[in-house]
Amino acid sequence: QQPVQSPQAVILREGEDAVINCSSSKALYSVHWYRQKHGEAPVFLMILLKGGEQMRHEKISASFNEKKQQSSLYLTASQLSYSGTYFCGIPYQAGTALIFGKGTTLSVSS
Amino acid sequence: DSGVTQTPKHLITATGQRVTLRCSPRSGDLSVYWYQQSLDQGLQFLIQYYNGEERAKGNILERFSAQQFPDLHSELNLSSLELGDSALYFCASSSELAGPGGADTQYFGPGTRLTVL
Question: A-contacting residues of B 52-91, CB under 8 Å?
C-alpha cells in the first residue's frame, strides 16, 4: 500500500522551516527518505527505523511516530539547495524494494 | 555520483517497438531494482533481482521483462511499446537483501528517459 505524503507542495523563503509527513495504513518498520532534483536521480537522505532514534542529514531531520504510523521530515532554516521533490518509501515486502509516496515538492526562494 | 550506471541516457522510439535498458550496479551490490517514473504515477517499483534471481515483482506489465546476469548487470526489456510507456526508468542497487527494518539503502542510477512516439 502506497504511503501518503502531505503536503503535496511547499513554498518557502530561505531560512524558513517546513515539515513533510509520510503516513501508512499498515504497520511501519522503516521509512526511507529521498530527495530528487528535477530530471535527476533520487538521492538517499536517511532511514528511520521503528524504535530507532531521530535521524539527521545536514539540517534536515526526521522522526518516526509508531502510534500514528507516520514519519515526519523536518527541514530547518531552509537553503536554496533544499529545493526538490521529497519522497518517502516503505518496504514493499520485508527485504525487498520500496513503495514510494507521490512526493512533496519543495521550492525555496531567496 | 551513486556508482550505479545506466545506458542509454535517452531513447526515442516508435509504438510497437522493443527496447533494452541496461544497468550496472555499484561494485559489490547484489540487488538490482527497476523503477518507472512518469508524471502522473510517481516512482513505481517494477521488479527486483538479487544475485541473478528474481526476488520481487511490483507493477510490471507482461510486455516488460528483466534479467540479471552473472556479472550482476541487469537489463530491462520493454516490448510492444505504447505511448504511455514514455517515462524515466531508474535502476537502483543495494548491497544486502534486507537491512534493518526490512530494506537496505538503495542507490539510484541517473535513469534512462524513454520517449515513445
Answer: 55-56, 58, 90
